[in-house]
């Protein structure tokens, strides 16, 4: 498959809001699926529309509509790296069968995979983060290139999709087009028969809704077609869709909700909080409070999964000095702006104990503190304070050029007063 091409973003997306999503649905509510797509491509968003397809069990119907309306419409496939080989083969089958001219694969960022899912097992412990890294994050910059995009979602698939309209307006004035919103399962199957469309190779084996291989299972006779997706988990969506009823998080504002600042951007955070239900032997991607670690040290050391350490004021990091390399991340808590004990902890961890992994500040993290935190070894920040978030994004943090105490070898004395030091 071809890689995505850079597309010039057309101006004037905000006129879509003025047109009104209700007016669009009122005008086209009774139109058949191909009519909805043709109207969207020709009149609503001419030259400004893309298609997102999973190339799953039902995808042939939407792709057939695309081939009828305009086979050169850009079609994007999220190649998560976790698909069945049969799905990858099906992409090529449908391209050839329908004459689709503009199919692109979107891949997750390799740096994100290396940082958050180095073993490829994040789906086992945190499927939401796995979907975010492999689907939502890669798709977002693509959808930003267009005024709207087409999905294959249908009302019958989940309760959350039960009010799905033909047209949705996202939080940043883009339109989602759902030509198949009113299709039922039997409509989909009959359409494939009527038009002689190739079936996904796994459909006949009992896979009625097909996503990534680790999170897709066979559906038993009489089960809901999507029962095989994330079976046993309280999860119905991968996160790339925002339904009309607001029940699903919008991918267009997902980046704004990230609170972990690292390497110059707010990014998805694979770690989550330790809870009373967490177990030392099986915990994964959690920051373990230091006293809890000490109380169950042997179980944590035997645990093979990635873990973090949470250090609160009053905790003695010296007590775990020999075990620091066990942790992929150390979170140091700042309960209030005036509590500076976390700075000393970071100095101990980064300089005395030469800890080289992630050191993150959590709690009351404000922009005036950040230059000082960085001096003490912090390389990640969890930030919820909106003015501080804006300052980080806009790169307008305050500068502190002269310090009372030096750090490492980067700061040297100036003048005749040895206590006055400046960054070189």
Question: What's the helix and strand layout?
Answer:
Elements: H1 15-19, H2 21-28, H3 33-44, E1 49-52, H4 59-69, E2 75-78, H5 85-98, E3 103-106, H6 110-116, H7 122-125, H8 127-143, E4 148-150, E5 167-169, E6 175-177, H9 185-194, H10 254-257, E7 260-262, E8 265-267, E9 272-273, E10 286-289, H11 290-295, H12 297-302, E11 308-311, E12 329-334, H13 341-352, E13 358-363, H14 370-375, E14 380-382, H15 386-393, E15 402-403, E16 411-413, E17 421-423
Parallel strand pairs: 1-2, 1-4, 2-3, 4-6, 9-10, 10-11, 11-12, 12-13, 13-14
Antiparallel strand pairs: 5-6, 7-8, 7-14, 15-17, 16-17
Quick structural overview:
The chain is an alpha/beta fold. The chain has helices spanning 15-19, 21-28, 33-44, 59-69, 85-98, 110-116, 122-125, 127-143, 185-194, 254-257, 290-295, 297-302, 341-352, 370-375, 386-393, and strands at residues 49-52, 75-78, 103-106, 148-150, 167-169, 175-177, 260-262, 265-267, 272-273, 286-289, 308-311, 329-334, 358-363, 380-382, 402-403, 411-413, 421-423.
Provide structural commentary.
The chain is of the alpha/beta class and 424 residues long. It contains 15 helices and 17 strands. It has helices spanning 15-19, 21-28, 33-44, 59-69, 85-98, 110-116, 122-125, 127-143, 185-194, 254-257, 290-295, 297-302, 341-352, 370-375, 386-393; strands spanning 49-52, 75-78, 103-106, 148-150, 167-169, 175-177, 260-262, 265-267, 272-273, 286-289, 308-311, 329-334, 358-363, 380-382, 402-403, 411-413, 421-423. The strands form three sheets. An eight-stranded mixed β-sheet has the order 8-7-14-13-12-11-10-9. A six-stranded mixed β-sheet has the order 3-2-1-4-6-5, sandwiched between helices. It has a three-stranded antiparallel β-sheet with strand order 15-17-16, with no helix packed on it. A hairpin with a 5-residue loop joins strand 5 and strand 6 (175-177).
